[in-house]
Design a protein that fits this description.
Rossmann fold; alpha/beta; 274 residues
Length: 274
């Protein structure tokens, strides 16, 4: 029987998350992971900076997960011992909404983290910058989001407050680590096509600073599951129409590679202070 200490109830996806969390305990030998980290495009090097990896599990071996289909994402989960002796659960990839239009598959990562005992989830991504001042290679704290997917991981009368979804406490910690960090509003589109210039102008008009194809749905599911949420983006390219350059995933990967050591050290220091 799966462990029900941390996520209770039978909201769609919760029983599957408890099953995956129990499989993680069996595979890693770690009873509880205090923090979960979801590594998006450009953030892969951060796992090596967090602490000692005590176990590595192929993602596809866990119930409800598939191997990642997006280039640049890693097909494993790590259990990492942090300097304070607690453990972090590091997801080398996420499921994107555009892969199957299955919002429960998207939410399964953060729900599994909650069922594994996590109190906090760190969501990272690579994104497009709407503000020309946010040049490629710039890390940006997510202060809020706009969900333009037209979907939600919640079912039924689940009236969850989103006022302070992206933890003010952890954003203060991040700015203590690097006072030059800026904040922005992340706008999630459904993808997988990149946004058109008109869509980027719309996102700017409604208050967006960043555009991408992840994170907002993950964050909603995480808050619903009781997690404190911290989000940080890496600007990997200027959004469509902001510059005259065509967009490509190769550009995203290149920007992540170039910024990798710097943002990995930044993220590790933030997580060590949480």
């Amino acid at each position: 029987m799966s462990d029900e200490r941390f996520v209770t109830g039978n909201h769609p996806g919760f029983p599957q998350a408890r099953e995956a969390a129990q499989a993680l305990r069996d595979s890693t030998g770690v009873d509880r992971h205090r923090i979960a980290v979801v590594l998006g495009s450009g953030w892969g090097q951060a796992a090596d900076r967090l602490g000692e990896t005590v176990a590595t599990v192929p993602t596809a071996e866990l119930p409800g997960f598939n191997a990642p289909s997006v280039p640049g994402h890693r097909p494993t989960l790590r259990s990492v011992r942090l300097p304070d002796g607690s453990h972090a659960l590091v997801f080398g990839s996420r499921t994107h909404y555009y892969e199957s239009r299955d919002v429960d598959a998207v939410a399964h990562t953060v729900r599994t983290a909650a069922a594994a005992g996590a109190e906090t989830v760190v969501l990272t991504n690579g994104c497009g910058g709407i503000n020309p001042a946010l040049t490629p290679g710039t890390p940006v704290l997510i202060s809020d989001h706009v969900n333009l997917t037209g979907d939600t991981p919640l079912r039924g009368p689940e009236f969850v407050d989103m006022t302070d979804l992206y933890s003010p406490r952890i954003r203060r910690i991040a700015r203590d680590v690097d006072p030059e960090l800026t904040e922005g509003v992340y706008v999630q589109f459904a993808g997988p096509q990149y946004e058109t210039p008109a869509e980027v102008r719309y996102a700017r008009t409604i208050g967006g600073d960043l555009v991408g194809m992840s994170t907002a749905l993950d964050a909603v599911a995480a808050r619903h599951a009781g997690l404190e949420v911290f989000g940080i983006s890496l600007v990997t390219n200027l959004a469509a129409g902001v510059s005259d350059q065509p967009l490509s995933h190769t550009e995203v990967l290149q920007a992540g590679t170039e910024a990798g050591p710097r943002i990995a050290a930044l993220l590790a220091e933030i997580i060590h202070r949480i």
